[in-house]
Amino acid sequence: MGSLKKTWSRFNSIRNKIFFSILVFLIIPFLLTFYFMDKPLEKVIEQKIGRSAQDALYLVNFNVQLFLEEMLQSSVNITINPSITKLLKDPDAYSKYEKLRLNDTVLNRLFSSYFSNSYVTLFDREGNWISTSYMFDPLLHGYLDSKWYQDMMDKPYQLKWMFNNKELMYADRKPIITLVKTITELQTNKNTGMIVFSVREEDIRKYLTGLEGNTYLVDAGGTIVSSPDKNEIGQSLLNETYMPKVWKSDRGQQIIEKKGQKWIVNYDTVRINGWKIIQIVPYDTVFKEIFDIRKANILIFFAIFIVFSVITISIAYGISKPLKLLRKKMRELEDKEFYSNIAVTGPQEIASLIETYNKMVRKIRGLLGRVKEEYEQKEDMRFRALQAQINPHFLLNTLNNIKWMAYIRNDKDVGDMLSNLGGILEGSIGRGGSLIMLRQELDYIENYMALMKMSHPDTISLNIDVPDDLMDQEVINIMLQPIIENCLVHGLQNMTGMGLITIQAWHDEDDFVLRVADNGTGIRPEKLEEIRGRLGAGSMDPLPERIGVQNVHDRIRLQYGDAYGLSLDSEPDEGTTVEYRLPIRKVQKGIGDDTKSDAG
């Protein structure tokens, strides 16, 4: 299992994936296409070549047919000659000289464009004969004593085609093709004799040349009558595997295997005598050009494969090398404390990735530096805060002592003032977090307003209209005091009459709304638009006046998001209204002074 996983991890790389992807999606489809197209193409070409060979063989057959028909016509012309008819009926009617003259004027005067020389022999029923060429006794007795000769003489209108290359030959000993035909009298329907019309085999051989491979004219006995190859004339084809099919059909084509080699056999039938014309061509010879093209295609394919492999490997290596270097450098980052840069090389995408990596390393290094500095500053501030807590607590304890001394001496005003001041100071330093309950914030405001009323006893008042079930709402520490202070300083200080600050709270769907309103002098419209613009844009620049509004608004947005914060509305000489919008949350007291909040 481990070795398999290791092998897969080696394969699962960009370089190997690119290489095998090209192999799978380019080379294999090319091979499959080549295979499945080459075979049908070869079959189609094979059929077309077969038809072409059949057409060529048909022309040869046509010429051979004409040749044999010319032999038959010549023999018929001789037999219908009246002198020949009279000679066969009454051999004694002609003297020896007249027979020689008849031989010269009738038998030797034949002319044909198909054969150069002919051998004509006439037999009567008594065995007398006359011939254009001298016949040896073996040839003469070969005809007269043969069974087929006697059978043909006994039956009218007989016809026989023969090939003679050994025994039944004339004095020149040339292989001959022979037509034997009975001469039948029409009136009596009896044979008066027989004509043996022969031509040299070499006269018909010329029609078999010009075809590829071996071409044979084969008689009914399977003997090769004629062929461009003289050495094969007279050989028998009866034992050849393709001959049974040749005998069964008039024409066709076979593909056979002989001695480990494929051959194409085309054949056709000579209608006049049933002989076969057979062409045997080596399969590789017919398809030599196809095989050459196929070999060329295979060589081209392997050349393309090698080129593609080299290009693919170089591309994959060019991509994977920078990535491997990038991976190595990333592993070394922590050891080198993020002081690790890579030279920008490789393709545009890889170079861009490396450049981004270098920028990231620089930024991380800078961020780590800043985090370290901030941590050091935070620790220093924490130390200073812990140290500074000593003085406020000492001051709070001293104020409490002075307060009780004032009460003991019956100076109630001073005692109340010190009590309120102590409450404000205790609220400032005694809270454990930035989030408190609304009740705590309102207690803080009441202490603050009580202290402020001592300087304006009959001119300001505070009205808090908040239901008890909203007193546990989570609010931000000291978010009301800056707004109350603005109401006192900018809204109520310069007005005549009684100043009133009202605090109300309610739920608006999923939001908690807290409204602080006064009945003071209000804000000028242009000033109000400026304040609203700054609050809406979230500008970090402090407002020229009423800095507390911006501070509280920013703290709410930082705590809860941009959907929350402050909104202002004011009318000159009518007053100003500030609304706080916060999510509905209740505060649960935690351990010590800390608090926890959960969404309400």
Would you kindly provide a written description of the structure presented here, covering whatever features stand out?
The protein has helices at 2-11, 14-79, 82-89, 96-107, 137-144, 147-154, 201-205, 243-248, 283-286, 288-332, 348-388, 390-408, 412-429, 438-453, 481-492, 525-537, 547-560, and strands spanning 118-124, 129-131, 159-164, 176-185, 190-200, 214-218, 224-226, 252-258, 261-269, 276-282, 435-437, 460-465, 474-476, 499-508, 511-518, 565-571, 575-583, 585-589, 595-599. Helix 2 runs antiparallel to helix 10 and helix 10 (288-332) runs parallel beside helix 11 (348-388). The two termini are 54 Å apart. By secondary structure, the chain is of the alpha+beta class. The protein is built from 17 helices and 19 strands. It has three domains: 53-286, 2-Layer Sandwich (Beta-Lactamase); 333-387; 459-599, Histidine kinase-like ATPase, C-terminal domain (Heat Shock Protein 90, 2-Layer Sandwich). The longest helix is centred in the first third of the chain and has 66 residues, at 14-79. Strand 4 and strand 5 (190-200) form a beta hairpin.
Entry summary:
The protein contains 17 helices and 19 strands.
Number of helices: 17
Q: Architecture of the largest domain, CATH level 2?
A: 2-Layer Sandwich
Report on the biggest sheet: 5 strands, antiparallel
**What number of domains?**
3
Shape: rod-shaped
Helix content: 40-55%
Widest sheet: strand order?
Answer: 2-1-5-4-3
CATH superfamily of the largest domain: LuxQ periplasmic domain, N-terminal subdomain
In percent terms, what proportion of residues is strand?
Answer: 15-25%
Distance between the termini: 54 Å
